[in-house]
Specification:
This protein has 262 residues and is of the alpha/beta class. It is 18% helix and 27% strand. It contains five helices and 17 strands. A hairpin with a 2-residue loop joins strand 13 and strand 14.
């Protein structure tokens, strides 16, 4: 089974790992300059570096649909620059997963593949996708929805170890981002971890720097550009999160629900 995943950030990567380990061939699509902050667990890094490895799976950049098919068939995850999903016609995937996490539908429709799954707010099962998957932390996280929609976006980051919005770092100005610290570093509140147009972006809490947007990526003031994990576990920087794994499980269930011959 070939699955085309729109988006290649950390949640989309958690989905891809679940699908890959279940025996699916996976092609992921993202923009030419990805803005993912949890870069150590995001296959979108293959666009910047040519390849990326998350846990035990390698993703490789493909120039077109033919190369993407070959990479996926050989056992790796293929990553393409295809923000408008134009390669779907050439790939003819068995399933399409929209994991852009834009909080709204950016053009995914049920006619893209035999099975279409929408991830997070902005999708309605039976209208623009066959199934949707809940992304809000809590009782329903990872649940496959066959009628209706995921919980609407609240704009409030999920709570980890009692910390919510304070763990998110936001760009202090418009312009290219400059990393001062590295993902995995232990940081203290008030410490400078990045700069934009000479303005410092400082740590809001003590913890481990779990996410940081890549140097050179253009940001706008207030844009999410970093993430601190208050639990202080360096190993969490190199493995997909509980949320990504749960969402991946819901996507896998939904695809199998509509594809299984049993």
């Amino acid at each position: 089974m070939l699955v085309y995943v729109r988006g290649a950030g950390d949640i989309a990567t958690g989905i891809a790992l679940r699908l890959h380990r279940a025996g699916c061939q996976v092609v992921m699509a993202d923009i030419a300059e990805p803005t993912c902050i949890r870069r150590t667990v995001a296959f979108s890094e293959a666009i910047r570096l040519g390849e990326a490895r998350v846990e035990d799976v390698t993703a490789r950049l493909a120039a077109d649909a033919r190369v993407a098919r070959a990479i996926a068939a050989a056992g790796d995850v293929a990553v393409v620059v295809d923000p408008d999903a134009r390669m779907i016609g050439a790939l003819e995937p068995d399933a399409v997963v929209d994991a852009i996490l834009a909080k709204r539908n950016l053009g995914t429709s049920m006619d893209m593949a035999p099975v279409v799954v929408g991830v997070g707010p902005g999708f309605t099962a039976g209208i623009d996708c066959h199934a949707a998957v809940e992304t809000k932390r809590g009782h329903y996280l990872g649940r496959a929805i066959y009628q209706g929609s995921p919980i609407a976006n609240t704009g409030v980051p999920g709570v980890i170890a009692g910390v919510g919005a304070d763990r998110v770092l936001r760009a202090p100005a418009d312009g290219p981002f400059e990393c001062v610290r590295t993902i995995g570093d232990a940081v203290s509140a008030g410490e400078v971890v990045g700069r934009v147009a000479g303005e410092p972006m400082v740590a809001t809490i003590d913890g481990v720097l779990r996410g940081l947007i890549a140097s050179g990526v253009r940001v706008v003031r207030g844009m999410k550009s970093g993430d601190i994990d208050p639990r202080g576990e360096r190993a969490f920087c190199d493995t997909v999160s509980d949320k990504a794994s749960a969402v991946g499980g819901g996507v896998l269930e939904a695809i199998m629900h509509f594809s299984s011959p049993f």
